[in-house]
Design goal:
The termini are far apart. The protein has a four-stranded antiparallel beta sheet. Strands 1-2 form a two-stranded antiparallel sheet. The chain has two domains: 42 residues, no CATH class; 102 residues, Alpha-Beta Complex (Aspartate Aminotransferase, domain 1), CATH 3.90.1150.10. The longest helix has 19 residues. Helices cover 46% and strands 16% of the residues. The protein is an alpha+beta fold and 152 residues long. It is built from five helices and six strands; from the N terminus they run ββααββαβαβα. A hairpin with an 8-residue loop joins β3 and β4.
Length: 152
């Protein structure tokens, strides 16, 4: 993407190379056919219904935890729950869950202006997909409860 760089000047490569930062997504290209076959075998409607069921289940479960506030309650939202455990930093929640083997995302999620508007340091975010189960949601909710006990 860069032809030459110094402390005084940067010269970008010619098109299209100046927009090709980093290594190409080789793994994505190799696995693309398998991903399409997987989605086709299940069907988009079945995937949609499963993800909606998981989202509703997870939302009901997380709202049972005192001191949790969900951000983003659109009628037709995707399988994502962004939340704050009151009086804690989302990074702390994420770190504790990570130590329990649960991967969530924390931070501003490329929405810094929105975080600034609501005066938030970021949120913790659970992302659900076709391969998730209600059992995994239960495990995550139990881990959030443990994190809450540690942090509050």
């Amino acid at each position: 993407m860069i032809q030459d760089v110094s402390f005084t000047k940067t010269t970008y490569a010619c098109l299209p190379h100046k927009f090709e930062a980093g290594t190409p997504n080789i793994a994505g290209v190799v696995s693309f056919k398998s991903a399409i076959n997987f989605i086709t075998s299940l069907g988009l409607e079945k995937i949609k219904l499963h993800e909606e069921e998981l989202l509703n289940y997870a939302t009901d479960k997380i709202l049972q935890i005192n001191e949790i506030k969900i951000y983003g309650n659109a009628k037709n939202k995707s399988g994502i729950i962004s939340f704050i455990l009151k009086n804690t930093h989302p990074y702390d929640v994420g770190l504790i869950l990570d130590k329990m083997g649960i991967a969530i995302r924390t931070g501003n999620h490329c929405t810094q202006p929105i975080m600034d508007k609501f005066n938030l340091p970021g949120t913790a975010r659970i992302s659900l997909a076709v391969y998730n189960t209600k059992e995994e949601i239960d495990i995550c909710m139990n881990a959030i409860q443990k994190a809450k006990k540690m942090l509050l």
